[in-house]
T/G mismatch-specific endonuclease (Lentzea albidocapillata subsp. violacea), 170 residues
Amino acid sequence: MCEVEFDARGKNLTEAWRQARLKGLLADEVLPPGSKASSVEVRASMRGNRGKDTRPELMLRSLLHRRGLRYRVDARPIADVRRRADVVFPGNRVAVFVDGCFWHGCPEHHRPATKNADFWREKIDGNKSRDVETTRTLTDAGWTVIRVWEHDDVEQAATQIEETVRRTRL
């Protein structure tokens, strides 16, 4: 397609994409009808956000597994309730949620979106309300719910979860 000879891979990629655009080899991407994203770049970023297997979840699960705990991943604690927990200990009735600071409105780290602000405020408020409802529903059904923020110390979270699971052994 083209020759690039910068000293850094990032510069080479940037130049290669620039030349591809100049040669008409790339089509301009447009937002699909009905998209709520404010731009193509925002849409790509949002689509790249994981719903499960995030770095904080993987780190926590790894620690729990090393401590000898076995669990289900991304599972419904109650089969007929459409809510999924990140880590579930069915026999102990313990459900763990690892909440992301942006998506769940962390009081310490959440920074409101500036573009499409009304949409995002409603979205995050809805997520927070659903979190409260989920915790209440599970607690009312006899489950212990543990919520961990993505920024929490993973060792401390694993210790809290391990102690809770071992205490609730049936």
